[in-house]
Amino acid sequence: MKRGDTTDDRLEMQTWRPQSVLWLLFIVAACSLLFVCNILEIRTYTIKTAYFLQSSPRVQEELSMKGFFIRTPGCTIPEMRAMDDSIKKYIFMEKSVLCNNGTPPLIDSNRTSIYLLESSLEYYNLNDTEQLTCCYQEFHRVAPGQSKDDRVDFGKECVPFEVWTDIEHEFIRVKCFHNRSMIYKDFFSFVPARNASNVGKEKLNVLIVGIDAVSRLNLHRQMPETVRFMKELKSYEMMGYNKVGDNTFPNLIPALTGMSEDELQRTCWNASTHFDECPFVWKDFKDSGRLTGFGEDSAWMGLFYYTKKGFRRQPTDYFWDHFDMTAEKEIGNMHRLNVDQCVGARLVHKVFLDYISKFAETMRVNRLPYFGFFWGASLTHDFLNKPKLGDRDYVDFLKMLNASGTLDDTVLVLMSDHGIRWGEIRSTYQGRMEERLPFLYLRFPESFAKRNPLAINNLRTNVRRLTTPYDLHETLLDLVDPKKLRDDSIQERNVSNQTTRRAYSLFDKITTNRSCESAGISAHWCTCQTSEKVDVGDQVVQEAANHTVNEINELLVGYADCVYLELEEVLDATVQINTDVIMQGTQNQDYTITFRTRPSAAVFEATVRRIFLPTNEYHFNVTGTVSRINLYGKQSLCITDFHLKLYCYCKQYISNNNNNINPIID
Q1: Which one of 92, 224, 316, 573 has the lowest number of neighbouring Cβ atoms within 10 Å?
Q2: CATH number assigned to the domain with residue range 529-656, chosen from the 4 options 3.10.450.10, 3.40.50.10420, 3.40.50.300, 2.60.40.3080
Q3: From CA 105, how far away is CA 345, in angstroms rounded?
């Protein structure tokens, strides 16, 4: 205390000293905390910046991808939301399908047997099994000679059984009788084990499961549980998988043969011949010592049968199409547009998944290496919103494959061919883009990924590249002999793969300069474009639309039963900024035009290139295929050419004044 301080002053100082010390300590602590926080903030900022600058090119690419599915010098595909406002009004819940008017099956099957369901007896007005007499009859495909491949032959004997019996055949028909009257008919398919060459050698299995007409975004909308489980399986989803043709055939032929439809016709097939001589990839797997399987539901309109003749010889070791055609013909029900949704009391798509399960399980139990390609259309072919009804069924199927250990040594490919090709959603920009961007997932066993890290790393990079069915074919060829995917081989291939070309294996690094043109995608199907709206009354738009109608009419020359089409109205028009054209230094312009013709009321979509001449004049060229985006049904029954059915309007309907706008066929 200083001299001269009074007693009151001393008391005041004694009162405030402790509080002053506390405030001083608080200020020091606050400053220390602020200093530490600043240090941490600087450190965090430094770490984040260093992470971006020092990360791999792939990570930097992913960080810069916001707003895009694909963003490379050769291709930009804008990001779209699965539930974008522009398409929300087209999304709704379809009604569940009630097979056989709700009457349950009387007989069921497992992998090797059929058995009676006693719980179903009451639905057939039966009290016990003694009132019932059942038998089964095997049937099999018959080689067609030069005719269409759609015949089967039934065995002469119907073998009686009671409650349960083993089955050694592939396909059987079951009949049950009460008081000598048939009260029940059903069909069952099995996968009896067969010998495969080189069974003792370790081989990678490949199982491809296709779902027709589902875009990548519609899969996310309609089948979220399937998407979620594929992610849990650590699958690779190809974000830029772009179709190369209009419907199923021109998109699966490249995946199965590496050829375009035109190339296939020039080398091994035409509409009047069978497909036996074509180089399908299952032949490569067969030559490597694997068993092979192929099957489609709704097979009557399948890949090789709709207006086509199929095969002379059975193409694969296991071939399901004839079972499906026969079962649907005899007990198909709940027909809607193109498909029977049920066979007897069962949904067609569930019967199909059950067969694939039997196939995979038989191969696993008997340690048989295999390649299987299975394509389902009954659930999804005709309707945008029907896939949702199968979401749980596909999840259960995939979980079964995983739980059984099937995926431990099997590459799983889950894919589609294109998005929905008709309906109101196709009038939107997003609908047009989705139609061209089907989904593709690839899932590999952990052991495969560990043995081939560079190949998997390249695949991971290619998730954000423009890819096509041609690439899928090259990938499948690599899987015939996975030894070629070891790091040293991939390194050599990466060096030689710097130039752009039509097809890459997804295990090779795809160049960022890849464009639609170099990938074999015509401008009409290309999603690597930006576009601007054009007035539908614009002179150039009208000229381009009339040019397209004239080209359609030229295609129909010689088909006297088809009427001459006229342009009725241009519904929509955009001009596209085509990366390929710009890179070539030309001033050509691509117009995408949607228009309606009369008298058919057909709605078409075409990409028309306006090609400028040195004289400043121009002419038009239709690129790719002219798409039909509404349903044509029976309008074209008067011709058989599956390409021209999209365009022909039969003269007989003029007098009847009946457009009959029903289902389109793939």
Answers
A1: 92
A2: 3.10.450.10
A3: 5
Residue 354 backbone dihedrals phi, psi, to 5 degrees: -65, -40
- For residue 372, CA distances in Å to 153, 187, 296 come to 25, 22, 11
Which residues neighbour 598 within 8 Å (Cβ) at sequence distance 6 or greater? Answer: 565, 566, 568
The whole-angstrom separation of Cα 189 and Cα 96 is: 25
Tell whether the model's pLDDT for residue 395 goes beyond 50.
Answer: yes
Question: Is residue 379 scored above 80 in pLDDT?
Answer: yes
* Dihedral sign, Cα of residue 385, residue 389, residue 392, residue 398: negative
Helices (H), 241-390: 248-257, 261-267, 281-287, 321-331, 348-365
- The answer for residues whose C-beta is within 8 angstroms of residue 241's C-beta and 6 or more apart is 216, 437, 438, 439, 440, 467, 468
pTM recorded for the entire structure: 0.82
**Pairing mode of beta strands 133-141, 171-178:** antiparallel
Look up residue 77 and give its two tokens: 């595909």
Give the bridge partners for 205, in sequence order: 410
Q: Which residue has the higher pLDDT, 4 or 560?
A: 560
Confidence of residue 47 (pLDDT cuts 50, 70, 90): very low
Q: Please state the rounded mean pLDDT for residues 274-303.
A: 97
Domain boundaries, the chain: 200-496, 529-656
CATH numeric code, 200-496: 3.40.720.10
Biggest alpha carbon distance in the chain? 131
CA dihedral 21, 23, 24, 26 (to 10 degrees): 120
Closest CA to 333 of 521, 132, 102, 495: 102
DSSP string, 160-217: EESSEEE--SSEEEEEEEETTEEEEEEEEE-------TTTTS---EEEEEEETT-BHH
Output the six-digit token pair for 375: 């394509």
The residue that leads in pLDDT, 133 or 6, is 133
